[in-house]
Amino acid sequence: MFEPTPRRKREHKQHIRHILDVSESIFAEKGFFQTTMRQIALKAEFALGTIYSYFGSKRQLYEKVIETKVNELVSSVTNETLDAPTVQGKIENFVRAKTTFFHKNLSFLRLYLAEVDVPRPDVHHILPKSVRDKYDSMLSDLTGVIWRGINEGLFKPMDARVVAKALDGLTNTLAFSWLGAQEAPAPVETDINTVTELFLYGATIHREPTQNSNSRRELGNGS
Amino acid sequence: MFEPTPRRKREHKQHIRHILDVSESIFAEKGFFQTTMRQIALKAEFALGTIYSYFGSKRQLYEKVIETKVNELVSSVTNETLDAPTVQGKIENFVRAKTTFFHKNLSFLRLYLAEVDVPRPDVHHILPKSVRDKYDSMLSDLTGVIWRGINEGLFKPMDARVVAKALDGLTNTLAFSWLGAQEAPAPVETDINTVTELFLYGATIHREPTQNSNSRRELGNGS
Amino acid sequence: MFEPTPRRKREHKQHIRHILDVSESIFAEKGFFQTTMRQIALKAEFALGTIYSYFGSKRQLYEKVIETKVNELVSSVTNETLDAPTVQGKIENFVRAKTTFFHKNLSFLRLYLAEVDVPRPDVHHILPKSVRDKYDSMLSDLTGVIWRGINEGLFKPMDARVVAKALDGLTNTLAFSWLGAQEAPAPVETDINTVTELFLYGATIHREPTQNSNSRRELGNGS
Amino acid sequence: MFEPTPRRKREHKQHIRHILDVSESIFAEKGFFQTTMRQIALKAEFALGTIYSYFGSKRQLYEKVIETKVNELVSSVTNETLDAPTVQGKIENFVRAKTTFFHKNLSFLRLYLAEVDVPRPDVHHILPKSVRDKYDSMLSDLTGVIWRGINEGLFKPMDARVVAKALDGLTNTLAFSWLGAQEAPAPVETDINTVTELFLYGATIHREPTQNSNSRRELGNGS
DNA sequence: AATGAATGAGGGTTCATTCAT
DNA sequence: TATGAATGAACCCTCATTCAT
Fold this sequence. Notes:
Number of helices of chain A: 10
Oligomer: homotetramer
Shape of chain A: elongated
CATH class of the largest domain in chain A: Mainly Alpha
CATH topology of the largest domain in chain A: Tetracycline Repressor, domain 2
Structural class of chain A: mainly alpha
CATH superfamily of the largest domain in chain A: Tetracycline Repressor, domain 2
Number of domains of chain A: 2
Strand content of chain A: under 5%
Distance between the termini of chain A: 62 Å
């Protein structure tokens, strides 16, 4: 019996990280079903069996890829959202955190859209419950923020959950537009402002904007 | 030698329609890769070979399913959108047409989201160009509407294409929320109002205008 | 009950002939297994079922194609061979008849080589016994001629059957060389002379050819 | 990471050899199209997938079978042919080498005749160019020998290429006669002599030269 | 007789997964 | 632990053949 050396442990973690990264890029490029374990093993420079010894199955590997990144995303978004004191600030931070994250994880974006945004039917959920829970908790937090906004008389009295979904979808939609565009995506700040402005005040120009115009300027002054 | 009798022709069309319907439901339920041609043949109550004699390959069948429904959707949406005289009317009709269509074609919605909203990377595009073109033309029409709104001083001067995408995404997001919900989805009109209101005027309550809709309508009827 | 009109009967025969011709060309081009009944039906401008009503099965159609042409070949060759009074004349006529026939039926040649020259193993004979018998009878006739030549002291005392096979193979080999060549094949007479000369007198030049040279000239004077 | 151990490598080669042997026998027995990969896997006592991991596809496996044996044949024949100093010696050695090879590789003979002797039309060539080239090179060597014989005044002035083809076909024809015969084939030497005699001096008995071989040898040893 | 839509057995091929080394 | 050869279930597709009209 050997006790695992610290070096061993470190290497082990590095390997896992490495395989996850490689898998993410291939899954993102080809999708789950058109990715083969051999392709992953090849690109990761491990033997086929080694991948299995680390992750058990293709499905589990895929889930781990999603789970890891979703955790990062949700943590980041949740923290940022909570960080601001006002409702508007929270909204803005939510949009900023999500947008920034996807800007930095473009290849993951495709997986996210395919899996979280358009999940397979309930019976055959490809995602483990933990991931969906995580995602739902993020959405719940956002719902809470909306709800507070409604209670404070800031937001119109709509179904908070639906509004939250709408905002979430709005950021996804925008992020998605990067995927198609081959050109360098617009600066993040512009996107953040567009979404925030649209969500808070809509597309229509108002005639007598008193305080609102101020807050809008603050949101938009990055460009 | 003989051309097919009218009856034969009619049956032929019925069979095609039948297979397309069956395929749609299975593809929607399991996705492209987890659907087998045998499942389709079985559910359609045709022999395997018969499906092939009608559609050539799994890929082509899938494309035909998408193409047929996307054509319906786009026609319906385009017509309705053009139908209204004012910009706001067009926006509202767009949302109404799309929402209504998805309400009536719930199973197709999943395919639509998977294919149009989250396309696979360029090399492996599962959709024929014609379908994507169709979709793009719908989006272009919408972009035109937005653009007109901006020119008329109704909408804020934003990137019309991005705004159009946002509105499209917003309706998708809402429609998507039906997929998860096991409960009877809310009445269509509610959803339509939510999206339209959110898009046009945002989530925030404005201080001065008590009857927002009235004053705003005045703005739009100048054209 | 209608008695078949003479016209009907005539048409029937014409159809059979037509389908056989079409089949021969396709079988020759692609081989048995890579030819489909649909291809034949299409090129023959009959419905699939019609082909079956005439020939029962792909195998039977194929056999009929071979059988018909082999019968023509064997009849022609046998008649010509018997026609000449001398052994040398018979040999020459045999070569001439076979060569001429293949010259006129180039597409059949491929089938012939594939089926008669290189038959599939005994268990799975694709040819009906009648065809093989026909072919064997031709070879027997030739063997008889050789045998007579040996008895008359004209030919060396070799195994007549083997010698006959050799001559038969020699003509096949030559005919085969036309298949590869895209250029217009050499005049038939040249080929006939080459084979006959080679078979009767070999490749070697003899020093004191007294009578032999005469007979050779007779054989070769066509060119 | 690790290169395969010598043992692994050895086994790998043995497996390839084994599968090739098994395939050859089945292909020879049933032909390409009536042989299934499952049959091969079964007889080779490997899983279906294993055969594919070794050879990629049925077509490639078939080609490898042919290629391997044709290479053996051509090497053997070319070496033997070059070995003799005189033209007649070369001719005799050519016949001997080919005949001996087929005597020892009876099952391959059928494949050889089907593929080399009766190739499918150009578009559907089942053989890789390399194999056909190999075969052509053998034939070219033989043509060279014939050509030398003609130049030395030994052979009649015929088209050397055609004569070479004729000799090649003659040996094939003879070898082929073994395929049908269930009885033990005649001793190889007899066959070799028959072909050589026939090719060099023809079937006809010459009047004057009692000891043909002697006088003829004198003709040939001038080189 | 003629038609061609419908049938379904069968074959080539892929790829997740296992396991002996 | 790491390896990768071996496995075989499962899938897409073809095509000879049948049969109702």
